[in-house]
Amino acid sequence: MNIQNYINGNFQNPINNHWIDNYNPSNGEVYGQIPNSTKEDVEKAYSAAKSAFPIWSKTTPEDRSRILIKISELLEVNLKRLAEAESKDNGKPISLAKAVDIPRAASNFRFFGNAITQFASESHESVGQQAINYTLRQPIGVVGCISPWNLPLYLFTWKIAPAIAAGNCVVAKPSEVTPMTAYLLGEICNEAGLPKGVLNIVHGLGTTTGQAIIEHPDIKAISFTGGTATGAHIAKVAAPMFKKLSLELGGKNPNIIFADCDYQDMLATTVRSSFANQGQVCLCGSRIFVEVSIYNQFKKDFVEKVKALTVGHPSNEDTHIGALVSKPHLEKVKEYIQIAKDENGTVLCGGNEVTIKGSENGYYLKPTVIEVTSDECRVNQEEIFGPVVTIMPFKSEDDVLEMANKVKYGLSATLWTNDLKRTMKMSNELQAGIVWVNTWMMRDLRTPFGGVKASGVGREGGFEALRFFTEAKNVCIKY
Ligand code: NAD
């Protein structure tokens, strides 16, 4: 199926009529083409957004809220169709797309549709000076939203929903690897009555289409989720233009297991936090540290559970592990397994590709557990972003804290313990934007989301996102 850009409420071909192949990771076949958009297409999208801004930015929060909630409802009505499209485009198990990705996209619109009606300005009476100060929260104008391939509609809408809720108009680019549900979102926005030009979706490569968005002098803010190297590049390009930036980048998250935890709960969740979406979630716990007294038991039980996971076709309802997103990504992950072996790591299970009958050219890899002897080896320091985790024992809180923090990233950390003192100490000292204790991936959309160090700058979620997508202006009136 070929898809088109969505500009000014219309679907249209790229101006140069150049196209990129779109692959189905479950069988390695090209199943459609997407626009290979250029600067000219981005300019067209920008013009549409600019023209829509004066009216959209003056609508009441209630009016915007109504449309966002309508989009949310239509995403729910179309859940099956969207989940199938997401699973085919990305390789993720259909059960995950149905239970998590698409419902979350609907929640994003519902949440920000409601949040904007509660996003109140502050005011202060400056006693003694006979003045009153209040803060206006004004939309920025035209903003850019750029998202990755791992949670396609989930992360695309996580940016778009707060941007338009706050009164901005958007030029957005989904990943060229997984464009399908972003394309379907355009249809839904039209059906929900979103005015033309408020959201414009331009498809294409990062280095051309994405680059045109970040270089555009009048796109005043960029909300980006993706790799750390791309984030650094965007920061460099944007700095001389003083663009507002929100950068959600890579991770290498520790999963720290103490002997006093609820063992069965921890075990089941650790399987999920290691391999959900083939390990292609920025929040997956890819470095597992286990207190030495339970290390051997954990190793045995964990490997047994991982071996029982079903690698299969993404459209199969009982598949646990679907296909990796692309051939180059599969090759990258396999390279890391070789690097681990070269660095004296022991592959406890997995490590090799899987052939699925009828889909022999799909990108399937067995979930892989590697025992490492040093926390400083490359597989423990570099983001792999696939179904590969490392495990190693630790002796004390201080040892594990040091190892957990000794990476360039700082996105999330998971801690398993029932000791309150330890919980407080560790969660204070772990260098991460999110610490989960005795759970993983439990999200409340009101909470701030983001990373520290090479995992990014800025926070999304709740009022943080609405603050990002508005400029604060102080007005001081003397009376
Ligand atoms: P990527 O950086 O290659 O691409 C992300 C997006 O940026 C894509 O749409 C791409 O086309 C675009 N892009 C690439 N070069 C660009 C440029 N020069 N200018 C503008 N846009 C450009 O990342 P990816 O491979 O799609 O995604 C995987 C990465 O995303 C991993 O590192 C993962 O950890 C990270 N991620 C982070 C979070 C988070 O919330 N922190 C969430 C999901 C994924």
Outline the structure in words.
It is a single chain. The protein is of the alpha/beta class and 479 residues long. The protein is built from 15 helices and 22 strands. Helix content is 39%, strand content 22%. Helix 6 (180-192) links the parallel strand 8 and strand 9. Helix 1 (39-56) packs across helix 7 (206-215) and helix 4 runs parallel beside helix 5. Nicotinamide-adenine-dinucleotide binds at residues 146-150, 155, 173, 175-176, 206-207, 210-211, 214, 225-227, 230, 233-234, 248-251, 282, 383, 385, 411, 451, 455-456. The site of nicotinamide-adenine-dinucleotide has 31 residues, from helix 7 and helix 8.
Describe the structure concisely for a colleague:
This protein is α/β, with parallel strands linked by helices and 479 residues long. The protein has 15 helices and 22 strands.
Itemize the secondary structure elements and their pairings.
Elements lengths: L4 E3 L2 E3 L6 E6 L4 E7 L3 H18 L4 H17 L1 H12 L3 H22 L7 E4 L4 E9 L2 E5 L5 H14 L3 E5 L6 H13 L6 E3 L4 H10 L5 E5 L2 H11 L5 E5 L4 E5 L5 H13 L9 E7 L3 H13 L19 H16 L3 E4 L18 E4 L6 H4 L6 E7 L2 H9 L3 E2 L1 E5 L3 H10 L4 E4 L14 E2 L2 E2 L4 H7 L1 E9 L1
Parallel strand pairs: 7-8, 7-10, 8-9, 10-11, 12-13, 12-18, 13-16, 15-16, 18-19
Antiparallel strand pairs: 1-2, 3-4, 5-6, 6-22, 11-21, 14-15, 17-20
Helix pairs in contact: 1-7, 2-4, 2-6, 3-4, 4-5, 9-10
The structure holds nicotinamide-adenine-dinucleotide.
